[in-house]
Design goal:
CATH superfamily: Winged helix-like DNA-binding domain superfamily/Winged helix DNA-binding domain
Order of helices and strands: HHHHEEH
Radius of gyration: 17 Å
Largest sheet: 2 strands, antiparallel
Strand order of the largest sheet: 1-2
Structural class: alpha+beta
Strand content: 5-15%
Number of helices: 5
CATH class: Mainly Alpha
CATH architecture: Orthogonal Bundle
Distance between the termini: 74 Å
CATH topology: Arc Repressor Mutant, subunit A
Number of strands: 2
């Protein structure tokens, strides 16, 4: 039988659940911004991590970029390269971040969304 949680553990679990709810409730605009950043960065670079995305995006809720990356991975839009890099965010203390690339599906979507130059 598991031991009962301490008050501190219960509060931490409640805070974690609240944070996950906030991430899930993020606006469609935030999701759109992250998607556009991933497509732009993926077309301009062979690989990328959340470090590069964080430099391009406005301040977002804690964990939001990671949640969005996971969603894009699940949808088959990006794929993990098997590499990791240390986070450059001081708040993460060098936590390891996955290195990603656009999948074939992601490249097709990104190319379709790329602005077209006007005909001369």
């Amino acid at each position: 039988m598991p031991r009962p949680l301490t008050p501190a553990e219960r509060l931490a679990a409640a805070d974690k659940d609240a944070t996950l709810e906030q991430i899930a409730a993020a606006s469609t605009w935030d999701r759109f911004l992250v998607e556009q950043a991933v497509f732009a960065v993926g077309l301009a670079n062979d690989t990328f991590s959340a470090n590069l995305l964080r430099d391009l995006l406005p301040e977002m809720g804690h964990g939001y970029i990671g949640s969005a990356i996971n969603s894009l991975r699940t949808a088959g839009i990006i794929e993990h390269t098997g590499q990791v890099v240390p986070s450059t965010s001081p708040a993460t203390h060098g936590h390891r971040l996955g290195v990603w690339r656009l999948s074939v599906k992601g490249l097709v979507i990104a190319e379709a969304r790329r602005p077209r130059k006007a005909a001369a």
